[in-house]
Amino acid sequence: MNDTIKLYRGEVFDFTDSPLDRSDAFRYFPDGALVVKEGIIIDCGPFKELEDRYAGCERIDYSGKLIMPGFIDSHIHYPQAEIIGMYGKQLLEWLNDYTFPAEQAFSSPEHAERIARFFVQELFRNGTTTCMAYATVHAASVNALFSVASEYNMCMMTGKVLMDRNAPDGLTDTAVRGEVESRSLIEAWHKKGRNRYVITPRFAISCSNEQLKAAGRLHEQYPDTYIQTHLSENKEEICNTLSLCPGCRDYLEVYERAGLVTDRSVFGHCIHLSDSECRRLAEAGSVIAHCPTSNLFLGSGLYDMRQANRIGMQTTLATDVGAGTSYSLLRTMGESYKVQQLNGYPMSVLESFYKCTLGAAKALHLEDETGSFEKGRKADFIVLDYAATPSQQIRREYLERNGKWELENKLFGLQTLGDDRNIVATYIMGKRM
Ligand SMILES: [Zn+2]
């Protein structure tokens, strides 16, 4: 019996709730087991309790390593894979000088396929099992990413970028064409397998009011699609937006007028919001994707996590590659900690891990599918080595010697010193990538 069941032994950790709401919001089994049947989690608990119950099934031993849900990256641009780490510009120049030229190549399906494959494999190498990604204006870029993700049964959320102004000719559509193409991509991909369609007006500077309204109409017609865009990333961007939309009292209102501020909307950055904008985002149940490596790299500013938490805004952590400088959500958590330190908020390691796993799954309405080890969830999980480098190893030995080799110190070491080198294995629906 049990030959389709696999038991993974190791240190098992997941969240059951938000650590901001309760101190016992997580499960941690130092000698634990995760049990998977046909890609689905069927059990999780102490190894001693589960070893008899699943006697005879295949065992995979990751003792001493951490088994946790895969990371969810809620804001990333796959067509920017080639232009990561380009020197010296702030947002608007960076888009014109680096991003737009790179995105033009995605009119070629072959190029899109090649970069999509690189991108998905790079996510796996970094322990990311779900992402919400921007494609480009070209339908081919969306087809490529959904196709590649489908080969791996990965939960992929993406959509065609809408841009009908302030971009080079090869990268613009029109309000009508953007709507027509988005609709046919929704029909082709949304909820096919694990794919989800994300209606993607890039940001207000590159979308006319007609285009934003068309995006809102599409979401109304397909209410279980998602919306992603950028909001209040950079001060020059905010000034330009308000001069392009003279009737609006603030940036958020541009999106509100188009029906784009919903509980399925993910706004990248949100660094320079007014109190009123924060409250309206919280009331709408919208999600803010905080992208610390990008915000530091482009000099955009410091997101105020404490204020967001106080007002009740849902925040997730995200990489924003290619302005973000790493695919690793470990690195991203480490940088988020530093950004919050500059704000006088030493964010807890549990809060940051939550915002890359169950917190992100809940924010994206995926908690019935991924983000934790609840029974019935898809087996999207990762295995981490706490001490993949000499520096991590000597830190570990010090903590062990002093009786402090405990969960929060372990996680904080991963967050501060960790990266792709700490990812031992990435599983999607129980299959090792
Ligand atoms: Zn972005």
TrEMBL record:
<dbReference type="InterPro" id="IPR011059">
    <property type="entry name" value="Metal-dep_hydrolase_composite"/>
</dbReference>
<comment type="pathway">
    <text>Purine metabolism; guanine degradation; xanthine from guanine: step 1/1.</text>
</comment>
<dbReference type="InterPro" id="IPR006680">
    <property type="entry name" value="Amidohydro-rel"/>
</dbReference>
<keyword id="KW-0378">Hydrolase</keyword>
<keyword id="KW-0862">Zinc</keyword>
<dbReference type="InterPro" id="IPR014311">
    <property type="entry name" value="Guanine_deaminase"/>
</dbReference>
<comment type="similarity">
    <text>Belongs to the metallo-dependent hydrolases superfamily. ATZ/TRZ family.</text>
</comment>
<protein>
    <recommendedName>
        <fullName>Guanine deaminase</fullName>
        <ecNumber>3.5.4.3</ecNumber>
    </recommendedName>
</protein>
<dbReference type="GO" id="GO:0005829">
    <property type="term" value="C:cytosol"/>
</dbReference>
<dbReference type="InterPro" id="IPR032466">
    <property type="entry name" value="Metal_Hydrolase"/>
</dbReference>
<dbReference type="GO" id="GO:0008892">
    <property type="term" value="F:guanine deaminase activity"/>
</dbReference>
<keyword id="KW-0479">Metal-binding</keyword>
<feature type="domain" description="Amidohydrolase-related">
    <location>
        <begin position="67"/>
        <end position="432"/>
    </location>
</feature>
<comment type="function">
    <text>Catalyzes the hydrolytic deamination of guanine, producing xanthine and ammonia.</text>
</comment>
<dbReference type="Pfam" id="PF01979">
    <property type="entry name" value="Amidohydro_1"/>
</dbReference>
<dbReference type="GO" id="GO:0008270">
    <property type="term" value="F:zinc ion binding"/>
</dbReference>
<dbReference type="InterPro" id="IPR051607">
    <property type="entry name" value="Metallo-dep_hydrolases"/>
</dbReference>
<dbReference type="GO" id="GO:0006147">
    <property type="term" value="P:guanine catabolic process"/>
</dbReference>
